[in-house]
Amino acid sequence: IGDVEExxxxxxxxxxxxxxxxxxxxxxxxxxxxxxxxxxxxEIKQRKKTExxxxxxxxxxxxxxxxxGDIILVHDIKGxxxxxxxxxxxxxxxxxxxxxxMNIDVLICPEYLEEAKKRYSKRLSGDxxxxxxESEIFNKQREQIFLEIxxxxxxxxxxxxxxxxxxxxxxxxxxxEREIHKLNQFMQTIVDNANVWxxxxxKDRNVVIWNKAAEEISGYxxxxxxxxxxxxxxxxPDEEYxxxxxxxxxxxxxxETVENFRTTICRKDxxxxxxxxxxxxxxxxxxxxxxxxx
Length: 294
Fold this sequence. Notes:
Strand content: 25-35%
Shape: elongated
Number of helices: 9
Radius of gyration: 42 Å
Strand order of the largest sheet: 2-1-5-4-3
């Protein structure tokens, strides 16, 4: 009986000790769980804060994109449009939904397609450089729009995923440049076909225009004369006489109007001709003296 009672006592003591160990273990586990929960709560708060900041940042960038005067367009590596801003919608004439269903090639004018294909090929090979170039697109009304473009890739895991295109509408400027070019060609035609010797001098008395009549009368070609100041030595070999003519030319450049001022020139073949000057001053960013001679 005594041994049995002693065994019971030992079992009870072991149970009590085991219970104490479990309570200690549970207490420590509870503290660890509490710390873990606090850490998770902190992480969740930080993540929410980051997400909120990211959302605000995205909203700011979206606002900037949507209010920009330039076209901002994003397309994937195959050319399919995934985003276009309000300026792109307005300039192209297409709705946002219409553009998003398009491939970028549909908008590009045919004469620019070959260059576009070359750029796409470079992108596919991994070229991540920024491209700057000019191109033309058709709007919905099939009108040509001139664009100055900058395109750069979006790279993820060392692979190009999308292309961001920023394009400025320069149609008015380009049309103005073309009109100026046409006008210059028209003016050049008039100058070349005038039946009088027509010469334009800059402020340093260098020839900038030498028409066909001037070539025929003097015997000197445009290539021999334009851009040089040696016309005086060629036409007026006598130094004293040449200085008199150059002084008169200087007076014209300074504002004097001349009519029927006669000089005798020496042609390239050494024959002489008498010419009559009629001059006026043309004021521009670079003043020029417009002279005609008969």
